[in-house]
Amino acid sequence: MANEHNLTPDVDGFEDVTSALMETVNSYPGLSVGEKFKFTTIEPGAGLSIFASSGSYILEDHESITGHVWQQCLYPFMVVYQVSGLSQKRKMLLKEWMDTFGRWLTRQPVKIGENTAVLEEWPKLTEGRVIRNITRQTPAYLGSINEDKSETWVMNLQIQYRNEFDR
Amino acid sequence: MVERRYLAHFLSVDFNINKAAGTNDDGQTYVRIGSYLEQYQEELNPQVDVRQNILGEQYVVHNGYQVQSNAEPFYIDIDATGRDKALSDRLQEIANDRLNGDKCKTFRVDALFEVVTEGSTVTIQSLWAYREECVLVPQSVGGDTSGVQIPFQVLNTGNRKKGTMTWTMDVGGKFTLD
Fold it and tell me: Do A67 and B5 touch (CB under 8 A)?
């Protein structure tokens, strides 16, 4: 699998991180009843979606004198919200909702209604992989206006995780 | 070329060089170090003085070695089943209680292993192994955001002996004097 950085992919890591990420985002307390994030679903009226832009890849690869390997890996992704027919005020609220969600996913405390919500720990991975952090690369912004006048709002984030194993 | 992982470095976590020998080994509890070390070496630091006599001839005075190693980084391990737990505990004790002298004294073993295949049986045997008394000196406590570190120096103090080393993940290292 190629990516724009021309780095080695972490194929198993992609599946592992995707699974943990989807479980976490769908536990966001700011979701309405019945509302769910879909995975890489870009279609008019699709609502919320997580779009993994370039797969998961290895940024750094280290090997110790004992044959223990640890890798710094990156999983860039986008939060995409497909909406249509929104008023100016609703658009502002949508952007605010996405930015609040972004803060929550990066483990900052956020206000949801009367309550303060915090993501207490990074999503759990398996087989020697551990998430080190999730960071926002952009605030929520209008990515595109589609032919049917629906709008695609986007926010870019990335997950840095560590993978360890013995050779 | 020999893969680097076959040269292994062990430290006794007993910190008791007078501990009675076992039936089949020297009785020390050895742990292998280096899980996060991308390089580690015995720095021999040879004490060499090159001089010239009145005849214009060059001669060398070689007084021996001041051997030491630096283990940096060393991430402390507090997981009860972690491979670096025993050494981490001792290093924290030395650093926190500012211990010195014989309380920091232990054995190091450096051994080169080879893979031996006999029929369908594959074993790892030491080609050579040397044990020497040493002093462990923690250098700092803390480090960057990658994890809590206590890097340390290993300073050899002599009494070097040749022997045989065995090592497995579950049993650990066992050293037997020749």
Answer: yes
